[in-house]
Prior knowledge:
The complex is a heterodimer. Chain A is of the alpha/beta class. The two termini of chain A are 28 Å apart. Chain A has helices at 24-38, 56-61, 73-85, 96-102, 104-113, 141-146, 159-171, 218-230, 248-257, 273-284, 303-312, 314-322, and strands at 4-5, 21-22, 42-46, 66-68, 89-95, 119-123, 152-154, 176-180, 185-186, 201-204, 209-213, 235-239, 242-244, 261-268, 289-294. In chain A, 38% of the residues lie in helices and 20% in strands. A seven-stranded mixed sheet of chain A has the order 4-3-5-6-8-7-13, with helices on both faces. Chain A has a six-stranded mixed sheet with strand order 1-10-12-11-14-15, sandwiched between helices. The termini of chain B are far apart. The A-B interface holds A 43, 64-65, 67, 69-70, 72, 74-88, 90, 105-106, 109-110, 113-115 and B 81, 85, 127-129, 135-140, 142-143, 145-155, 157-158, 164, 176-177, 180-181, 183-184, 187-188. Chain B: It holds the Pfam family Transketolase_N. Chain B: This is Transketolase. Chain B: Residues 32-277 form the Transketolase N-terminal domain.
Amino acid sequence: MTTTTAPPVLAERGPIADQPRFDCRNAYVDTLADLARSDHRIVGVVNDSVGSSKLDAFKKAFPDRLINVGIAEQDMVGVAAGLANGGRIPFVSAASCFLTARALEQIKADVSYSDRNVKLCGMSPGVAYGELGPTHQSIEDIAWLRAIDNMTIVVPADPVETAAAMRWAAATEGPAFIRVSRMSVPAIFDESYTFVPGRATTVREGDDVTIISNGTVLWRALAAAEQLEAGGVSARVVSMPTVKPLDVDAVLAAARETRGIVTAEESTTAGGLGGAVAETVVAHHPTRVRILGFDAFQPTGSAGFLLDRAGMSPDGIAEAARSLL
Amino acid sequence: MTALAPEHVTMPVLGRLSPHASRAEQVAHIAEAARQIRLQDLKLVHHAGAGHIGGDFSAIDVLATLYGAVLNVDPDHPDDPERDRFILSKGHVAGALYTTLAAFGFLPVEELATFLKPLSKLNGHPNRNYVRGVEANTGPLGHGLPIAVGHALSAKLDVSRRRTYVLTGDGELQEGSNWEAMMAASHHELDSLTVIVDRNRLQQGATTRETNDLDPLDAKAAAFGFAVVEVNGHDHGELLDVLSAVPFRPGKPTFVIAHTHKGHPISYMSNNVAWHHKVPDEAQLEQALAELDRLQAEQKHEEVARATGDERQR
């Protein structure tokens, strides 16, 4: 796949950290309602998660098409597979920790292996529920789902990418997992952005070192690149919304053209985006990779605190990048 | 034992009954299908050297009744959106399902000769992407009922008359996902949904009572909001009457407890826990084939005579 260079929205706006922040769940529910208006097949499926998924407006607009199975995740994913059998396009919206862990076998057998047109939307993933502790933090979801065949995994970084990923998912037959955070993030993309599964976007050019990131950490990677530039280091920032399938060309270009790769994501260090990047360069073009993420159950703390603590503050990411020079 | 080969696959395709067939004709059709499916499935398991013959034989009469005279499905239009759905939740009896699908024209009969062979489409658990007529890739237990609830919900949203049938094992009901799905089914008043429980009272290693007792199953299902019906799961007339008459209570899903015997009707297999996935040897195969030929023919005569008598009385 060709790596595209973009996004004009970033140019001349000033430091990314100073930009206004948005809750991607608003883009999620607006897009879902919009999709539902034009396609009667779209339905929502929830496990009592109407409020936490911000689906109240959807419920009001389409009361029959928001199916609440109660607090029952295995049933929720099986029901979604059955709805897809009946020709519907279910968007399952549930806290990512319960959706992916509790219903992992249903995701594997009923959705992926059965090749059902089910969209799994993992709400508040990673450390979004930081204060609630490791039971509610969902840092493992990407690693678990990456191991399952026939599953596209998308980790959008801002509201525009969230909406674009959902529109792609609704229009494309087959299983998909989309992570939707409650953590506010600055806008990175503008309305000209096109989401293509498996395609990365170079959101900042650079040739000393590459930072590959996605989701809520992408803006932090950009902030790190701003710092690095101030210190005379040219850091490329590659947005990799699709963890699976990975944009191998973008990874290998980074491996060939820069002196090392830092990956930064709201996931376990084992088996996430970092793992996917490392597997790729080891096989095709060995280069140094620093994998930033979470390497253990996390203590209580806000999401921002936990990301900073794990070395994913802009300073931390910049420091990891400098260590490769 | 010789390896499974084309000469071991001899089952006729039974085709579809006229929609105007009498009940006696329907019963005869189902009974003949059940006889042919058992004869063929036994050979598959013997020659393939693997399979779940006990559970197969427990479920075959239900399968033959559904495909023989209940389900609105058509092998010429297997993807018709308005077809009824049958979901085999106890996916390990795939051999019985494949043989049934072959008997009714969904699967080429000759393909049965590949059962469990390397790269065969006929895996030990069914795959809908390989086999026409399979609605869900089952195998892990407790998956079929939630999928069936989802399909029944889709039919309700579509204001469609298409029905959903799911066959679960009884031991399988120890999986909690079934009870999650049953709560949702009654909450959403899915009366187009019929759950059939293959109540053979045996699981892999022991009776359900010894393992994790399900009784009182009827009261449990009723408490979960289902209309509960009990049938002899080997009586084709009874099965036909019940499975065609659903729903029994408007607004309520139906829970059919089909009382069965694992390994039915083979003398050395029936109700014997050892035959969960044991493979009959040459002598056992011969004995079983002989018993089947005789017992199933007797049952057919008896059932048809009874059905004909019933019709005269009406």
